[in-house]
Amino acid sequence: MASPSPITIRKNLTNLVRHGVDAWWVEAVGKDLLRLACVREKLPEGAEPDEEQLFEALRELLRDAIEKLGSEQSRIILRIVLSLEPGTLELSLRERREKAGLEFRRGRQTVTWGTIRSYHERRAIDQLAKMIFGMEQSASTPPLFDDGT
User: Fold this and answer.
1) How many C-beta atoms surround the C-beta of residue 77 within 10 A?
2) What is d(CA 52, CA 34) in angstroms, rounded to the nearest whole number?
3) Helix locations, 69-143, DSSP H
4) Is the pLDDT of residue 129 over 90?
5) Mapping DSSP to helix (H, G, I), strand (E, B) and coil, where does residue 40 land?
6) d(C-alpha 88, C-alpha 96), whole Å
7) Which pLDDT belongs to residue 72?
8) Residue 101 and residue 113: Cα distance in Å, rounded?
9) What are the pLDDT digits (tens) for 3-51?
10) Taking the CB of residue 138, how many other CB atoms lie within 10 A of it?
11) φ/ψ bin of 148: left (φ > 0), alpha (ψ from -120 to 50), beta (otherwise)
């Protein structure tokens, strides 16, 4: 089974930004991420995992990967737009981007939601996709991913 490309990982992350990391949306638009070996490494050993355990493992992986990013601003954006911070799952995407814009420069200057969307968010997603791809490459568990190549 082949590992996903960084492009596949990025596409899934972008889809999750649109909807937030909610269990229903992960299953609908980000399910390729659930098949990653680096996600499976976050699961408790033993029994076959259920969907909820896979979902929580993905959330844990995303949090871990985000914390390893070098840019604090990218970490802020990703935690908010991916709905990983408490209270953000109920917000619309625009509201999450507005919140990220308020926190982006620690209250010194607000960044518009449009600038977050068109510039900063894209760069942060690229960094996160590369981080997850690297984690996947070094994962010891075989992936549950087959992209047909």
Assistant:
1) 31
2) 11
3) 72-81, 93-103, 113-115, 121-138
4) yes
5) helix
6) 7
7) 92
8) 6
9) 778 888 998 898 888 876 666 566 666 678 888 889 888 888 766 777 7
10) 10
11) left
